[in-house]
Amino acid sequence: MAKVTGQNKKKKKYLTTLREQTQCRFCREGKHYIDYKDVESLQKLLTNRGKIFSRKRSGNCAGCQRKVKLAIKRARFMALLPFTS
Amino acid sequence: MKTAVKRLYEGLFLVDSAWAASEWETVLGTIRKFLERAGADIESIKKWDDRRLAYEVEGKSRGTYILAYFYCEPSRVHGIERDVNLSEKVLRALILRADHLGREDIDKPTPAELHPEGVPFEDVEPAEEPEVPAGEDAAAPLPGQEDLSEDETQAAP
């Protein structure tokens, strides 16, 4: 009986971590605005040719991906990030 | 007579690095003049950073960014952008609404204050593989997609 309880606990913990992990990196931080001046974090979402990673690749949710897209395009205009390289 | 409400804006201005190094007061004066001509109340104006540009702008490869927060009537922001476009000294400007920002965001230290000696642009180049958070197991790249990214890397001239 005790073994079953242990298994349940393990399963519950696994499910909790999975649920936590399903949120995107910006949702986890609770960010409502992605700053275009934060070049370091935006660069992690670009290929080394300067293209934006897909949602599947970056793990962003739809809303955050749109915010990231806008921030990257603003940073590109200000020559903080390359259009292509 | 109805008076227009002034809203908080954030403006980032890009100027030539050499000009900023030699005549810093003139640079600030020029930007202040643009803002004051539009009837803006300047909240703060400071150097954001001096860094290598991601691409050449008007033949310049280094630039100094100046970050300004100001209250302005929405209808007069266009005037600031027009002044910047007519100016040969200011290379680029981006003016955005900053209503969502708090006092701590405005007073946040700039990269220039954090790294006074300057961090070269090359130091913040992305790694070969981007940092994919541990949680994105479900969002791991498909094998085909990985190959596509690698092909793209190899295709670099």
Mean pLDDT of chain A: 84
Structural class of chain A: mainly alpha
Q: How is the main sheet of chain B built?
A: 4 strands, antiparallel
Structural class of chain B: alpha+beta
What does this entry show, briefly?
The complex is a heterodimer of chains A (85) and B (157). Chain A has 85 residues and is mainly α. Chain A is 59% helix and 0% strand.
What does this structure look like?
The complex is a heterodimer of chains A (85) and B (157). With 85 residues, chain A is mainly α. Chain A is elongated and about 55 Å long. The model of chain A has no long low-confidence stretch (mean pLDDT 84). In chain B, 32% of the residues lie in helices and 31% in strands. Chain B is globular.
How are the secondary structure elements laid out?
The complex is a heterodimer of chains A (85) and B (157).
Chain A: H1 2-21, H2 25-29, H3 39-43, H4 55-58, H5 62-77
Chain B: E1 7-16, H1 17-22, H2 24-37, E2 41-57, E3 60-72, H3 77-86, E4 90-97, H4 103-106, H5 111-114, H6 143-154
